[in-house]
What we know:
Elements: H1 2-23, H2 33-43, E1 50-54, E2 61-63, E3 68-72, H3 73-77, H4 81-98, H5 102-131, H6 136-177, H7 183-220, H8 225-234, E4 242-248, E5 251-255, H9 256-259, E6 263-265, E7 268-269, E8 274-276, E9 292-294, E10 306-312, E11 324-330, E12 339-343, E13 358-360, E14 365-369, E15 378-383, H10 390-403, E16 416-421, E17 423-429, E18 434-440, E19 455-459, E20 464-465, E21 470-472, E22 478-482, E23 485-492, E24 498-504, E25 523-527, E26 533-537, E27 545-551, H11 556-569, E28 576-582, H12 587-596, E29 601-605, H13 608-613, E30 621-625, E31 631-633, H14 638-653
Parallel strand pairs: 1-3, 5-20, 27-28, 28-29
Antiparallel strand pairs: 2-3, 4-24, 5-17, 6-16, 7-10, 8-9, 10-11, 11-12, 12-13, 14-15, 15-16, 17-18, 18-19, 19-21, 22-23, 23-24, 25-26, 27-30, 30-31
Helix pairs in contact: 1-7, 2-4, 4-6, 4-7, 5-6, 6-7, 11-14
Amino acid sequence: MIVMMLISMAVQHKLKAKFTQYSNIHLSNRLSGKEIAERMLRDHGISNVQIIQVDGQLSDHYNPVNRTVNLSREVYYGENAASASVAAHECGHAVQHATAYTMLQLRSKLVPIQNISATILNIIIFGAAFIGFGIGGGAQLILGIILACYAVITLFALVTLPVEFDASNRALAWMKQRNLVSEAELHDAGDCLKWAAMTYVAAAAGALVNLLYFLLQFIGGRVKMINWLTVILGLGIGTISAQNIQLTLTDRGTDAEFTKTMMMANVFEFRGDSVANPVDFASAKVSDVTEWKKVKAPVVSKAYRRGFTWIFSAIKTDDFAANHTLMLIENPGWTAYNTIIWTDRNHNYDLTDDGLPDTIKPHKTAIIAIDNRPNGFKIMLEHFPASQFKQFAIMNDKAMYQLQGSRLYSGTENSFRIRRMNILFGTWSNGKETFALCVKDANCNGTYSDNGVDEVMIADNGYAFQNLQSCVLKGGKGYLEWNNAAFYIEFVHPDGKYIKVRRDTSAALKYILNKGKKLPKFRYAEPTEKEKIKKRKIRRFRGEDLYVYIWHDQASDYIQDSAALHALGRIKNSGMKILMLNYGASSQYLHRYSRRYETAIFQGFSSNKVNRKLKIRKIPTGILLNKRQRIMDAAISPSEVLEYLKVSSNNKQQ
Length: 654
């Protein structure tokens, strides 16, 4: 398994090297990847497939569900052999779809079965890591399930091979037939596609090796602990309390703080060849003098109305527009036509030397880079939805018309809403635990390691990170706690390429309750039959094992936990009490909840004061206490408590 993993990594490295090599060989016809794709689709009579640009490197794919050819930025705009081959290959899948290619249809039917198989494998891996290693008939049954899952995964990988090879053959045959490229360029395109196909060959070989491994184990008739240990470690589950992790940061996320605020890019009319200095909404005064500066604007064929706006970023430092980047906008309002945006990424007031402009389609959003670095600062821009936020639009119009000076404000309905994409994250998993770690470019300057400014955040998944789980970098280092583990931030790459952390599950925690320590005293509110509340002391449960679960009904994890939680409440003579403390609901809601679900669970309310005492940084969360109310586990789920009771019961019977 390790050998196959190394082979797969080597093939991926070779593919990236080939793509980089052929990206530097420009086509004699100067056609971009987008134009190649358009021609191939048109030549095959396909008019219902869209070609769109997506973020990421080598993220190109065809989506048969919404019929889109998705090309990365390098392929979409590239005028080279690599871009041509990848674009034509993805269109080859569109042609397969249009002609009902048998293997593609079979692969599409296998997708949901393959996803279910992968999910079952994850559940088995988690269970094996948590409850130990099975023996006898039970283990044989589990091996049979694993074998069936890997059979499906292997079948899927094998069916994928002819689909990918056929798409490449279609692409190369079409390019040769149309004489779009020279013989040398066609050879380069074929070599690039050959190495792309090798990644699927390596994946299929890896799946086959895993299948044969488990088949041999199943035929053997018994499972030894050492075999289970090999499987678990082979799939990435470790038992070492401290480990060093270098996490590559490849995805864009958002700060949850900004999902609750309305950030605007207010648009003003472009005056001939000049733009006015930015309006700082927080500090601007009506008496402020407007300054103007000439810029070099691109020449366009259509005479749309033009506007300009400024985006906050600490990249730019001149006196005229400190900490702001200029955008020139063609057709800024809500119309049936696209909005074209030029961004002054070089910050030289010349909008003709910054590459191709960005496009916002009606009722769509666009992610726009503010500088030229691959991991630089980006924003998500959309036409402001004035019909949804009428009151805000009125307030914003009133303020901007007062502060516009000698500018001519275009109005909120012709301006843009911004979401900062200043977070890069990567996801780590060992099969039992999963978390997303991110770096936040707090001052929006495209650098992610500014001392005393930039932050590191952690969450159970990506895309929206809470400031509650964050630390500011000091001397390039930081400290976080998550799920009963300490995270020591050792290094953040300035360009946000990766982060180095040391994760320690045995460290004494500063912000989370530590195992073996006594639970702090607190009072909680208990709902009564008359929908009133009564104060209760947590010490009332002394002398019995206790599981305290702090929850909120809107939390996604609670929905997953609820079945196990109710099962806990129905266990008789378990020797453990269950206390659910709701955070945020009303007394009436909690009383109705207790009557609906008849279990032996004590109900109550948590509060900010209680949460601070218990050092709660994530809801829902569970705390397991012994009879003396010392902490046995400070971050344990209901399903884990169920398993704990099962193991305890088995030990007593033995």
